[in-house]
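Exercise 7. Predict the joint structure of the components listed below.
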Amino acid sequence: MDAIERARKVGETMFAVDTASRLTMGMELLVCEPGRAVLRMPIKAMHLNGHQICHGGFIFTLADTTFAFACNSHNKNAVAAGCSIEFLKPVHQDDVLTCEGLEQTLSGRHGIYDMRVQNQRGEVVAMFRGKSAQIAGTVFPE
Amino acid sequence: MDAIERARKVGETMFAVDTASRLTMGMELLVCEPGRAVLRMPIKAMHLNGHQICHGGFIFTLADTTFAFACNSHNKNAVAAGCSIEFLKPVHQDDVLTCEGLEQTLSGRHGIYDMRVQNQRGEVVAMFRGKSAQIAGTVFPE
Amino acid sequence: MDAIERARKVGETMFAVDTASRLTMGMELLVCEPGRAVLRMPIKAMHLNGHQICHGGFIFTLADTTFAFACNSHNKNAVAAGCSIEFLKPVHQDDVLTCEGLEQTLSGRHGIYDMRVQNQRGEVVAMFRGKSAQIAGTVFPE
Amino acid sequence: MDAIERARKVGETMFAVDTASRLTMGMELLVCEPGRAVLRMPIKAMHLNGHQICHGGFIFTLADTTFAFACNSHNKNAVAAGCSIEFLKPVHQDDVLTCEGLEQTLSGRHGIYDMRVQNQRGEVVAMFRGKSAQIAGTVFPE
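Solution:
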């Protein structure tokens, strides 16, 4: 199995059982490649906080899920060891968010991944940086 | 109106219209005092990710909501200007999370708030730090 | 050796060989107790950046050193696994900064420590949060 | 004056008066372009902590200085509104660090900048993300 096929299978395997991201939040998995993932999330009334804008926690959740796919894409189990987020623009109902995650460095067991969340006009609404640590095990047996 | 009564009314006003926190995530507002808030969130199947543990994004969301109540509790509109989170322990279905947020400093328009998320056994599962900036306006007219 | 004596000896041992903190930056070690450390740094012309205020990197350095003493105080080698800082007020020449670091949680190998940097008027100028990971070895043989 | 010439003049103006970066830490300014800066810092005995590796605070200081040049390069005064750093590899005496800072987004008064610190073998030793806010004034009159 080559790296591209492996990453695609990691994505399908993880997404099938991710209730929080798929069912509760309504995300779609668009791409899972080696060191890269793209997910999409349409913003609905259920995502709005008291200011009638999307709760920042749900933007974080989209980016955190994208991070998980990108850092597990080599089929070596990896977990988040820290993350930070910057919120840049408010997100409104009926916006459609797309998050792209990219591996910046992977050295030994530790990696850095950058997630960029954009709305349907291509405006960056948030940037998330995650640090990963590989642990024992694989996403699917190989 | 004194500071304690004001904070309580801020809490009720904000929580009533916060669809994301109250209805989607199932949080309860326990306390909203000057510079302090406590919220609770029981973890259900809908909160679980592919590892069958609570999605980190939802723990962030609980802390971010608590932060919003604590930093708006003086009835001056405040927004998040940055935040970071550390995840310390996995959270499982049927755990009940309680998050307490406390003002650490408030100087001019800028404040620092620390949120501590604990499970029903009193174990700290996450720590979140938020920086706030006051903007124009109030939560309720006064 | 009890915990208090052990922490004091950790502090003396580490500080004696810390060229960067002691000689280059001019810090003094005031306290090293179990899970707590206090250091002081007078601000001189050498610390000033182009705005004629203390370079934020040196405030970070003071807090990072304090973090190292607090998280090694149990005489188990510990390293930083991530940190964040918020700068709250500018620092000027002839200010004297004091940084107190306190253990917030220590569970297994991982701890969270909060450092608070104050000037000689007791104003908080920066807050730093560090996550530590214990590794093999001790600061001094025991 | 075009954008490239303006950025170069910003760099020269700021660096000339930055005692902390130039004299105390021994940095060299290599590039100051619109939204981009590169600085270099050779690691000497004065930079070493008690583990005989470069103090993390000085790596932070190099990245923070690079951030300042990149976010002021448009000749509009800008200040740091938050930053985070990940340390990836230890740095030793006689290593030569190079830090490149790049503007990721600049929208209205707020920008995000990523700094990447590498050693003389091209290994990434730290990654720093800074959020800037433009304030009144310019670096040099124009």
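Discussion. The first strand of chain B starts at residue 28 and ends at 33.
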